[in-house]
Amino acid sequence: MKVVLGVSGGIAAYKACELLRLFTESGHEVRVVPTRDALRFVGEPTWAALSGNPVTTDVWESVHEVPHVRIGQAADLVVVAPATADVLAKAAHGLAGDLLTNTLLTARCPVVFAPAMHTEMWQHPATRANVATLRERGSVVIDPAVGRLTGADTGPGRLPDPAEIFQVCLRVLRGRPRDLAGRRVVVSAGGTREAIDPVRYIGNRSSGLQGYALARTAAARGAEVTLVAANVALPDPAGAALVRVESAAELREAMFAAEGGADAVVMAAAVADFRPAERHEAKIKKTDGEPAAIHLAKNPDILAELGVRRKERGDGTPGMLVGFAAETHDVLANGQAKLARKGCDLLVVNQVGENLAFGTADNAATILVAGGDPIEVPRGPKDDVADAVWDAVAPRLL
Ligand code: CTP
Fold first, then answer.
1. How do the domains of the chain map onto residue ranges?
2. Ligand 1, residues 338, 350, 351, 366: which to mutate, most atoms within 8 A of Cβ?
3. I want to staple 263 with a disulfide (CB 3.0 to 4.6 A). Which of 91, 148, 319, 385 is the partner?
């Protein structure tokens, strides 16, 4: 595929080098179109060497090839990363003062913007309006990540991880639907840790991969996503607002804070069923005698509570409640019982055990539907399983 990588003048321009490599290494033909200011951060030779293509910034070079029209016309995808407030404004208003903005005007292929700027600029009404305009016209504008910005400040404005931007671009290239646009979803991911003392905990082997795939794919399908992550060591999914938690109690609080008004809530996290009844304030020391027993207390079932809250509130939100079930045996029978017991609309059942589901890139599942036929999801990447879940959710949303 022919990809145009537009790079505008922000400090995150260096991260676009990695995005460029991801495209070229997967066989895409990339033409880099930096703005003049982008070249103050990363020079022309870097883009030329990494892309294997000539690099120009203005419309007055190689004029006989009419680059200001040809590059955009020939592209299968234009991705602008980083996209500054300035380039978003120019694109929204149809200005065409350089090669990148000309390319954006002549491109008839999908366009993805990955903004990066200071929080104040991202939140300014002018930028908000420009982003809304671009989205209305069908461009994909990825919400920036939250975190450390240039200097000491933190907030929304970071360029998402290049691998995450790449995944969004691949989905756009494959023409995946954006059927969750205007929807708000909440996803939990990872595995909770229940403290025994300040240094030890009871935990589980959930990597968070499936939950992160659900958040990533929902954002790519246009949803506003809150991701509640328990102890996950993965890059932040592009476009999701991340809330980090550790214990089941914290996860419960974060889910309750986010679920009101949501169109769908997906509990993909592996929540500890039990916690140590007592949390020792000081580290437990090794003693000569028998080790002390750890007594356990039951954790609340957050998914079941979410079902009860929905019923009690009576406002129909969350619209869909989706649970996960990890089973080692009698997978379907246990799943059906769990679906009924937890009061959810869908239950994604996977078989777990050694090398199954936990920490692996692939997954297979059966989606049980309350009052409907089960949906078999063949073994495949966790993003595909996530898409199958949203395929089941999207048409059932009111
Ligand atoms: N879950 C939850 N709160 C808990 C335990 C589980 O919200 N305290 C949610 C999980 O996020 C998942 C679903 O319930 O969506 C099923 O989790 P699972 O561990 O398979 O079920 P359990 O309720 O623990 O049932 P069992 O121990 O009988 O397998």
1. 2-173, 184-396
2. 338
3. 319
78 lines ligand 1 (CB under 6 A): no
State in words which class domain 2-173 has.
Answer: alpha beta
CB within 8 Å of 44: residues ≥ 6 apart: 34, 55
Interacting residues of 138 by C-beta distance below 8 A, sequence separation 6+:
110, 111
User: Of 53, 102, 130, 204, which residue is the catalytic one?
Assistant: 204
**Whose C-alpha lies nearest to ligand 1, atom 21?**
325
pLDDT digits (tens, 9 = 90+) for 55-84: 988 877 777 777 778 899 999 999 999 999
Q: Comparing 2-173 with 184-396, is the CATH topology the same?
A: yes
| CATH code, 184-396 | 3.40.50.10300
Cβ burial of 329 (10 Å; 0-12, 13-18, 19+) is: exposed
Tens of pLDDT, residue by residue over 196-208, are 999 999 999 899 9
Q: Please tell me the pTM assigned to this model.
A: 0.90
